[in-house]
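Example record

One chain of 456 residues, shown exactly as stored in the release files.
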Amino acid sequence: MCLHISTISAYAQEDENNAKRFKLYTYAPEVESSEFFSVSVNDQPCKTISFTAADVAVFEMRKSVEISVKSLVTDIEKVDIRPKSADIKFKVSGNKIIFKLKKARNLSVEINGDIARPLFIFANKFEKQPPTKDDANVIFFEAGKVHDVGAVKLKSGDTLYVEGGAIVRGKVSTARAENIKIMGRGIFNAGHFQKGAGKIFEMGSIKNLLIKDLIGIDATGWSCPLYGCDGVVIDNIKLVSNNIWDDGIDVCRSKNVVVKNCFLRTRDDCIAIKGTLKGYKYCSDSYDVDNIEIRDSTFWNGNAGNGLEIGYETPSQTISNIKFENIDLIHVETRPGNSSREATFTIHNGDRATVSNVLYKNIRVEDPTDWLIDFRIMNSRYTVDKQTRGKIENIRFEDIFVTSTMILQNSIEGFDDAHMVKNITIKNMIINGEKITDQSQLNLIKSHAEDLKFVE
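Predicted structure tokens for this chain:
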């Protein structure tokens, strides 16, 4: 076959245009492609990898691209691309889905209602000025390799960088340091650690910490616990697992923390904010929890935890100034009839803390089951302060949109008249198209609680 020079030039021009639009990654030869899905970006094959909880395709993009998803195991009858707020228009042809992606974002593609085997598409923005392996303060993991590292410990001023296309079998465990960066477009996989040991990013008593863009897979303990940290930014990390104790991000006795642009799919709590240092020896208990912001993110809570959790462990004096804003909860798979009342919005105050000044704003909840709100002051199996109870005060819901096929339950329960839930405000909460203007619409259990207000 002989190609005309003009045809060759056209192909070269197309390749050049694609290079300006998007970037694909090259993985090690031993990394097998998914048996369930194949993905293309502008007709270029994008490596798709199977993990326990999902299949994952990752790339970078600068301009609009066309995504093609092919199901390798079934015909396509129904498609959900979440979050629904992204409003992704698609077409189906046989066993293929085609859609335009206009900007970098994180998506879940679910075929025929099968949430046991979703496809996650993680489209990153083009990387600007990544670190180089020549820098003495950079721990660098190259693309195209699988790196077996065990536990990586960092010191003050270190940058850990994982190139897109690199897979690191290991975790990061660091304490008593400052000015730490953990970043890159590659993958950490902790699935080989024993139960409880696979904490992917375990950080204690760190000042000025950045964790950015990485993917963490198959945590066998809390995926990203922060103990006694101050000044943390977690930006565009993706945590995907389906294991016991695999909480997404646990903020424990920390302050001045921002979590933004993240995608979390965990079996246990997606976000958990706690007043505990239990089990972590490197931190002082002098910190309370203060100034925590969780925003612009997408979460999928599995069937063993809560969506946005404060608690259960609350043995600090205060847990205050918490903001959850612009969040999509695309699944909340709490078990119907569960005795622990796992739910979407939870404050489980089992110790002495006063939990106050919490804002839930501009949050969209898709397919929650059983319990929506569960605020309680209580004794629990996690309680440390056996003789002292706390309080819950000044909680505000604003612009909350919920769609569910179930009748949802809610609870607001203090402990006694001295330890109450006070001053909860609800503004523009819409459940299945109905605006909530009175507690009679909430299927509510309420005790030792006062000042529940509905405002315009």
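Notes: Helices lie at 5-21.
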